[in-house]
Amino acid sequence: MLDFLQFRGPWDVVQLAAWVVSIALLLWMLWDAIRVSKQYSEDVLTSSQEGVDELALQQDAHKKS
After folding, report:
1. What is the mean pLDDT of residues 52-58?
2. CA separation for the pair 22, 57 (Å, rounded)
3. 50 Rama class: left (phi>0) / alpha (psi -120 to 50) / beta
4. Rounded to 5 degrees, what are φ and ψ at 36?
5. pLDDT tier at 50 (50, 70, 90 boundaries)?
6. What CA–CA distances, in Å, run from 36 to 13, 27, 33, 39, 48?
7. In terms of residue numbers, what domain contains 55?
8. How far apart are the C-alpha atoms of 63 and 36, rounded to whole Å?
9. DSSP state of 3
10. Residue 4 gets which letter from DSSP?
């Protein structure tokens, strides 16, 4: 019945470890996406221009003054 729990060799352990890591990464990405969407509005998340780093522009303006 639970044939997938029978380990036949070291590759089964490696495969199980890979599945555990994959599931952990998936859960972490989902948790992070939910946390970020609660913390920031959609306008903030989609407002920056591609290729423009606003913080770098502010630092350059501060250095010039």
Report:
1. 71
2. 38
3. beta
4. -70, -40
5. low
6. 34, 14, 5, 5, 16
7. 10-64
8. 31
9. G
10. G
Average pLDDT over residues 42-60: 72
Q: Which residue has the tokens 């290729």?
A: 51
- Total domain count for the chain? 1
Distance CA 10, CA 8 (A): 7
Residue that has been written with the tokens 């010039």 in this structure: 64
Does some domain include residue 1? no
d(CA 26, CA 64): 44
Task: Give the whole-angstrom CA distance, residue 36 versus residue 28.
Answer: 12
**Cα Rg for the chain, rounded, in angstroms?**
22
The whole-chain average pLDDT of the chain stands at 82
In the numeric block, which tokens belong to residue 22? 């994959």
